[in-house]
Write a structure and sequence with these properties.
Number of helices: 4
Largest sheet: 2 strands, antiparallel
Radius of gyration: 26 Å
Strand order of the largest sheet: 1-2
Shape: elongated
Low-confidence stretches: 11-15, 40-62
Helix content: 55-70%
Structural class: mainly alpha
Strand content: 5-15%
Distance between the termini: 48 Å
Mean pLDDT: 75
Length: 174
């Protein structure tokens, strides 16, 4: 049986599991195989005490890419994106979680209140339950809007800067 990406499981006939029959840089089914994580084992699956990156794949400037990511993480632009994220998410989660726990608590502790009719066969419990769904959709919309208006542009700029810096570190450029 073949995997969904058209590669035989275990790296193919005669190949040990997790290796690829083609050398890096070659094309395999029209897809270039120069991805450094192409042969990486998923976390927790068959890992040994060996380093996470095979020795054959290590590059001379590999340590400097980690330094680039740490530098970006310490940058004021990254800290601003993270603080904007936290300023939205922490209160939103607190409000939604409180609303959810209140709904469950009242449904459990005061079933008579939840059974009160509102209109016909619709009672307070049904309205509150539908309110949970409505709140979920509104929170999702608000999160997407907040991300689009307040974080996405800055995060995209950080991503581009990081890619340029890591490319420079990988290629040995200053």
């Amino acid at each position: 049986m073949q995997s969904s990406n058209a590669r035989p499981p275990g790296g193919g006939a005669g190949n040990p599991a997790g290796t690829h029959p083609h050398a890096p840089g070659e094309s395999f089914g029209g897809v270039p195989c120069d991805d450094p994580w192409y042969d990486a084992v998923a976390s927790g699956w068959g890992e040994s005490a060996a380093p996470a990156v095979p020795a054959a794949r290590r590059e001379p400037g590999a340590g400097s890419a980690a330094e680039v990511y740490l530098e970006v993480q310490r940058s004021p632009a990254f800290q601003e994106v993270r603080s904007r994220y936290r300023r939205f998410v922490v209160p939103a989660v607190a409000v939604f979680f409180t609303w959810y726990v209140a709904y469950v608590g009242i449904a459990t502790g005061a079933p008579g209140l939840m059974a009160r009719p509102v209109a016909g066969a619709v009672n307070v419990g049904m309205v509150a339950g539908l309110g949970q769904f409505l709140t979920t959709f509104l929170l999702t919309w608000a999160y997407a809007r907040h991300a689009r208006l307040r974080r996405d542009r800055a995060a995209l700029e950080l991503r581009w800067d990081t890619q340029e810096l890591t490319r420079g570190a990988r290629d040995g450029a200053p």
